[in-house]
Amino acid sequence: MRFNSFEFVVFFAAFFVMFVSAPKTYRPLIVLMASYIFYAAWRASFLLLLLATTVVDFSSALVIDSARGPLARRAALATALTKQQKTDAALPVPDLVNRWAQLVPGTNFAGAVTSGNNVTVTPSNALQTVQQLEKVPVLTQELANETTLKANDDLLIGQQNKNIFDLNASLTGAVKLDTDHQAQCVALVADVKAKAAKSKRRWFIIGYIAGFASHAFLASKGL
């Protein structure tokens, strides 16, 4: 099934109608099944390759998603890559060439496998492959840069969290100190009031005694 064929137009129209009308939860399954049908229409042996790739990639994605932390994720990614490389190494030459065409868009290996499982590489396919490989060092460096930035961000976030913790501790200490000062003020006011009340009672008693003595003295003098 070629992209410029009438069969592909009918196939794509049917796929588009099913994709748009289906609930969002079923759309990834529709895309997956349509991909299987499309590649099987070109060559039925592609189904085995696609099924193997799907199982490896999906299980690897689950492992990577369950990993915690950048180191664990990189380890899971490296394990997934190793599994895929082992799967590729076990492929027969025709399926390996199909995998090559899958990884390098723009290549066409139709009739490239000759007798004796030799592979003929045209200049166009060689150019597409080299151009694809040229991206690997760049992508690797970008990944390293992103990893460094992520580590720096994590370090900065950790420092900011420590600063926030220290500020919260300082604020808690300031609130406690203010509470203690308020308690001291209340105690001081209570003490002053108690002393004032005691002094008032003392002067009242002194005044009462002085008045009583003065009255008794005046009474004894007949005044």
What does this structure look like?
The mean pLDDT is 79. The chain starts with 5 loop residues before the first helix and ends with a helix. It is 82% helix and 0% strand. The protein is mainly α and 223 residues long. The longest helix is centred in the last third of the chain and has 98 residues, at 123-220. The protein contains six helices and no strands.
Task: Tally the helices.
Answer: 6
Q: Tell me, briefly, the overall form.
A: rod-shaped
Q: What share of the residues lie within helices?
A: over 70%
Give the CA-CA distance, first to last residue.
141 Å
Q: Approximately how much beta-strand content do the residues carry?
A: under 5%
Helix and strand element order:
HHHHHH
Describe the sheet with the most strands.
none
The stretches of 5 or more residues where confidence is low (pLDDT under 50) are none
Helix and strand content put the structural class at mainly alpha
SSE topology sketch:
Elements lengths: L5 H16 L5 H16 L3 H21 L3 H20 L3 H11 L19 H98 L3
Which features would summarize this protein structure in a list?
single chain; 223 residues; mainly alpha; 6 helices; 82% helix
How would you concisely characterize the structure shown here?
With 223 residues, this protein is an all-alpha fold. The protein has helices at residues 6-21, 27-42, 46-66, 70-89, 93-103, 123-220.
